[in-house]
Design goal:
Blueprint (H helix, E strand, L loop, with lengths): L9 E7 L6 H8 L6 E8 L4 H10 L4 E4 L7 H8 L9 E6 L9 E3 L2 E3 L1 H13 L2 H13 L3 E6 L3 E2 L9 H12 L8 E2 L4 E4 L4 H6 L17 H15 L3 E5 L3 H16 E5 L4 E6 L2 E7 L3
Parallel strand pairs: 1-2, 1-4, 2-3, 7-11
Antiparallel strand pairs: 4-10, 5-6, 7-10, 8-9, 12-13, 13-14
Length: 291
């Protein structure tokens, strides 16, 4: 499927372009998909004639949709699923724009990540270069158990990553499969490549109107955050595995210094909206910042 030009993988690419100024950079990475047959579907939250023109100049067959700002990047993804026949594609590639401006670091799988690092790891694992695209396609091709590919650093089963939405995830999985998952495993950040057929149950169960209007102040607990986990859980529930892509040695070698920094000085906004500052793990400041 990968090497034979007459029988190349067919990929549906969904890009939710919320931060529209990131288009030029993303377009450069999308060019690496020329090793497969792909269709581009772009969702915007407001009409932009100039941007649409630039997208069509890059990819004349692109389908561009203006959708309500519901469910962050997940609601538009569900909308996109309803615009295609999943049986027409081998794989779906889900991409979006993440705010990579400076802010508090996040921790996942014991790694500390800035917003810029988070975005970089997701794109690096999927479309950073042609070799990465080919490696992922070969992994799908040679490993029949591989259902989803994402950054190895962002695939997690850590309970702490899902504790605020655990009840919602379990309820959704019960409705979708008739049983609860033994654990919640997912690709944090919601960028991944997945076998198209595995999305059919989610497509049939949800629509864009199921999501509340997005609010940048909402940190966790929405349907979008629930489905972020459900995407991974549904891959596993259908007998497949989530595989990690792309070692990043620069990122790994920087982690010891990151851990030291966060031991000495750590600041974050809690799920309840409090700003918390710790020095050597001792809380020294605690104040409500989100009502």
């Amino acid at each position: 499927m990968v090497a034979d030009k007459e029988n190349r993988a067919k990929v549906a690419v969904h890009l939710h372009l919320y931060y529209t100024d990131m288009w030029a950079k993303i377009a450069d990475s999308l060019s690496n998909l020329d090793v497969c047959d792909w269709d581009l579907f772009v969702t915007l939250t407001q009409s932009d004639a100039l941007l649409s023109k630039r997208i069509l100049e890059f990819f004349p067959q692109a389908k561009i949709f203006v959708v309500e700002n519901r469910g962050f990047d997940v609601g538009p993804f569900i909308y996109f699923l309803h615009q295609i026949d999943l049986s027409d594609y081998d794989f779906v590639l889900k991409l979006h724009t993440k705010n990579d401006k400076s802010g508090c670091d996040s921790q996942i799988n014991k790694y500390w990540l800035s917003r810029e690092m988070w975005t970089g790891l997701m794109y690096q694992s999927l479309i950073s270069d042609r070799r990465t695209v080919l490696r992922n396609l070969h992994l799908f091709d040679k490993d029949a158990d591989c259902g989803m590919i994402a950054s190895r650093y962002l695939i997690t089963s850590d309970f702490g990553a899902s504790k605020n939405v655990c009840r919602g995830v379990l309820s959704a999985m019960k409705n979708l499969t008739g049983r609860y998952p033994p654990k919640i495993t997912f690709a944090a950040g919601t960028m991944f490549a997945v076998r198209a057929k595995l999305l059919e149950p989610i497509k049939n169960a949800y629509s864009l109107q199921d999501f509340a209007l997005s609010d940048s102040a909402v940190k966790d607990g929405t349907l979008a955050h629930v489905l972020e986990r459900v995407f991974g859980c549904m891959v596993v529930a259908q007998g497949y595995k989530i595989k990690g892509s792309s070692h990043n040695w620069k990122f790994e070698t920087a982690q010891p210094l990151k851990r030291l920094k966060h031991f000495v000085w750590n600041t974050k906004t809690t799920a309840r909206g409090y700003r918390l500052v710790k020095i050597c793990r001792i809380p020294v400041y605690h104040r409500r910042v989100i009502k």
